[in-house]
Amino acid sequence: MTINETATAPAEATASRPIARNITDLIGNTPLLDLDAFAQRRGAKASLIAKIEFFNPLSSVKDRIAWAIIREAEESGELRTGQRIVDITSGNTGVALAAIATSRGYPVKFYLGDNTSPDKRKLLETLGAELVTVPNSIFIDPEGLTKLVEQIEREHPEAYFTNQLGNPSNPTEHYRTTGPEIWRDTEGAVDVFVAGVGTGGTVSGAGRYLREQKPDVRIVVAEPGDASLPTEEQPYPAEIDGVHKVAELEDDQLPPNYDREIADEIISIEAEAAYAVARDVLRETGLFVGASAGATIGVALQLSQRDEFAGKTIVAIVPDSGERYLSAGVFG
């Protein structure tokens, strides 16, 4: 029997897709992938599904909010032709903002921690972004982020500060797109939704939509464990890039876009454990996920092993690709 005879025939096209006129036309409608076999090898009693956000054109979930922020700022007149865009970013929002801004004639400048993945920094530089590096230790101070925002606004009063952490366009876009896509593609079968908190927009916006459709849906936040957080003694631990702690923090220490009432449960996972999950997912499924996806899938696996979720469907967000962490130690 020949290889051709044993190969599965390609699926026939079932629907046409219009030709996109801009990269922003390609944002959203990302696929779901069944990870049941992977999960069942680890004792899962529930079905595990990944929402693959690196199918967005700039390869992360942040494409959604970058386009929403720019689009709505243009419509309102807050963002004017040729105006500089500035923000604080751990990389992915900056990449999306820079690509969209470049195509629309806006210069960009970003402030980012000195522990940001070298792969993300290279992407930002390639896209023409001006970068200002700030020490990771600044985020040990509970007021560090507020002080940095004040510095940016003082240094660039003429610029448009996209403010991904506090811009309401962020959770609104996830309410408008991410949540409805999950509901549609699972045909309403989603029982548990797992996401991390970077800005808080994904879990707050998509979570709110899903809860409106299904009041008993369980919303779970994956956050880094204590050993994965910077301290004065260890300002550069192994970290889950772009995923932040939310439990036990005061309101003024949380991203303004994070609705702390949305989460039914918060589960911590250490960076090394998240890295191990990302490596296992790659080796066993071929899905090349980043560290933050290692965290969400790792937490989803913990949930899937509980008797209370037997027969249920868990959807975990995969924020970006492992290609953005090749130089960050995630894959060795």
TrEMBL record:
Cofactor: pyridoxal 5'-phosphate
Official protein name in the record: PLP-dependent cysteine synthase family protein
Tryptophan synthase beta chain-like PALP domain mapped to chain residues: 23-320
InterPro entries: Cys_Synth/Cystath_Beta-Synth (IPR050214), TrpB-like_PALP (IPR001926), TrpB-like_PALP_sf (IPR036052)
Matching Pfam families: PALP
Species of provenance: Gulosibacter faecalis
Alphabetized UniProt keyword annotations: Pyridoxal phosphate
Database matches in PANTHER family: CYSTATHIONINE BETA-SYNTHASE
Presence of keyword Cell wall biogenesis/degradation: no
